[in-house]
Amino acid sequence: MMSPKRIRDMLKDKSITAAIAAVGILLVLLSSLLPEKDKEQSVSFTGAELCSASDEYRRETEKQLEEFLSSIEGAGKVRVFLKTAGSERNIYVSEGKTSESKEKKEVDEKYVIVSEGGSRKALLDSVEEPEITGAAVICTGGSSSAVQEKIYRSLEALFGLPPGKIYVTKMG
């Protein structure tokens, strides 16, 4: 066992003191990277679940759009195919602090957690649906330029699609 005098002599050596301080800082940094077992929860989705939610949204939107566009005078029977980008995205409620100095801005944000049925979950704020990036419409009145124009304008107004991302033709 080392005597207190020997320990004091060792601490006077600056290289040993610096090494001890470095090891202490390293241990603190490593401990902050480890997950906290009692707070850690994970939610996992398979790719199939994400695709099915996105596909379900697309199919439902197509049905609604077919019903809507068929009410345009002269359109007749309508079929719609939509192209989507991305997938459904959940947006969770968060709270945080922002601190600013001359050199930098720091934001500390944390999700709001609620207890539900014995489990803890992040509070859902909203759900962003996939972006509609293109549309193809076939209808019995699709040869009429007046019907085509109304469908183009409807899709542009509803989804912000430019004319180059919309195709309208006669059902054959």
Written description of the protein model:
With 172 residues, the chain is of the alpha+beta class. It has three domains: 33 residues; 85 residues, ANL, C-terminal domain (GMP Synthetase, Chain A, domain 3, 2-Layer Sandwich); 36 residues, no CATH class. It is built from four helices and nine strands. It has a three-stranded mixed sheet, with helices on one face. A two-stranded antiparallel sheet has the order 2-7. Strands 3-4 form a two-stranded antiparallel ribbon. About 5% of the residues have low confidence.
Element-level helix/strand string: HHHEEEEEEEEHE
The coarse silhouette is: rod-shaped
Weakly predicted, low-confidence segments: 38-46
Q: pLDDT average, as an integer? A: 81
Give the tally of structural domains.
Answer: 3
Radius of gyration: 30 Å
The CATH superfamily of the largest domain turns out to be ANL, C-terminal domain
What distance separates the N and C termini? 96 Å
Task: Provide the CATH topology of the largest domain.
Answer: GMP Synthetase, Chain A, domain 3
Largest sheet: 3 strands, mixed
Supply the CATH architecture of the largest domain: 2-Layer Sandwich
Can you list the strand order of the major beta sheet? Answer: 1-8-9
For the secondary structure, the number of strands is: 9
**CATH class designation of the largest domain:** Alpha Beta
Strand content: 25-35%
The number of helical elements comes to 4
